[in-house]
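Dock flavin-adenine dinucleotide; give full complex structure.
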Amino acid sequence: MRSVTGRKNVSDMCADLLQDESNLSGAWCEAAAWPENTDEAREYIRECSRTGMQLTVSGGLTGISGGALPEGGSVISASALKDIRLQGNGNIAAGAGVTIEELNSFVSTNTDGFYPPDPTEESASVGGTIATDASGADSFLYGSTRKWVEGLKIVLPFGKLLSIKRGMHMFENRTCTHPVLGTLHLPPLRREQPPKNAAGYYMREGMDLIDLFIGSEGTLGFITEAELKLAPEPQYVIDLAVFPENAGSFWELYDSLLHAEEPLRIRALEMMDDRCMDFLRSHPGELPLPPVNAVFCLLLRAEADSDEHLEEILVTLDDILVASNSSPETAWGGFEPSERKRIKDFRHALPEAVNHCISESRRKCPSIHKFGSDGAVGLSRFEEYYARVRSILEERSLPFVIFGHAGDGHIHANAMPENPRQMLLADSAMREIAASAVEMGGTVSAEHGLGKLKLDYLKLMYSEDEIKGMEVIRRVIDPDFLFG
Ligand SMILES: Cc1cc2nc3c(=O)[nH]c(=O)nc-3n(C[C@H](O)[C@H](O)[C@H](O)COP(=O)(O)OP(=O)(O)OC[C@H]3O[C@@H](n4cnc5c(N)ncnc54)[C@H](O)[C@@H]3O)c2cc1C
């Protein structure tokens, strides 16, 4: 097993461990290790427990909330855990360090199915996506990572190994007893947790114990291996970008698609607002610009099982577009690979343009970074939430765009401050946006997790007693708070 000790050695020889996609600076640690199998991980963690060395777990480092960045102690990286194999039951056993790209490539070569979680950044690791319960565009139909995890191997403090399968250990009356963990109690909650939620531990009456570890952001142990389920690959996938010419048509179209039934099987329902359209026009890249009259953009992905099903879907989509005054003629996309690629590139063009704009501002003021919200609300309040987010950013006269997973009531508002004064305004805007999501019954984080950057938002969503209840669970599993 490769390992490095000494603060300077780590920063000289493996500086990549000290940076992720969160823009957080100042990460440091005294040691780092890259176990190649579960036994090596157990040995290293046992030694850390013995010496009291705190542990931060690191995966593909694509996280946006800084959860993988150490503040001292040691980093244990999953990146050398690369075993991957097809099991007899058709599931995949994958080491935590296998990337989503590697997993997809293995699955397409060796099976007829596909792995639905698609958190955009394909260098994300299996362990990291489980630890954050990552979602993505297709979670509208396929749910988040949680739904696809059947088993986990997790190394706990003192090198104890927890091997856990879905369906084996359930909470009853908010209590679950496990031979390795002892007895865990879920705290009573003031309200139901929102359906798409990555803030705090997953806590539901009657839940499966495995779900406590999914989304626990590296605070309950080191995931070394996962058993993952696959979905059958549909015959056709259709990607469309529709460009309504006013906000009313957009919301009408959104509503029709949200409630559409078979034959229409919608996999993803995403949006870009008018600020995104204007921003793309003023930052042109290699792609064609959105149509001149486009005010909003609705990106949808649907799937079909046969030629007849495809035909039915295309006719139904045409009818829905016409009924909501959105022209099928100006829509882009289709089911051919080149058409689907065009939509994928268009989707990526926005965050790329935002990042480019931030880099430009950073040249004048090095401390500048992007601020992104990750809140979600129930679908019945989504339009209201969108309007609230927008007015919070407009009140502060910040440059911003709003896009995201409209089908899940989940948007990312990106504020692009240009100077230190706007940095402070953006920070307060993000907090107000998070508080608004909670006030509307939603979550402060639907997919990125709280990490170090947004840990403070936990208090916006949970009471002191609920947070204490989470700490008690953590203390039972990790008495010295070795992890995270
Ligand atoms: C351009 C871009 C687009 C993105 N789009 C999406 C999106 O659509 N949906 C989405 O959900 N996310 C998205 N993300 C965020 C990110 O890709 C996900 O959070 C991803 O799941 C992180 O995986 P990782 O392997 O990079 O984890 P890391 O960043 O390394 O770590 C993330 C967290 O997981 C913990 N962790 C990592 N590995 C393990 C392990 N083996 N055991 C226990 N804990 C572990 C870490 O301690 C940390 O708390 C995006 C990021 C970028 C940069």
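Observed: The first strand starts at residue 2 and ends at 5.
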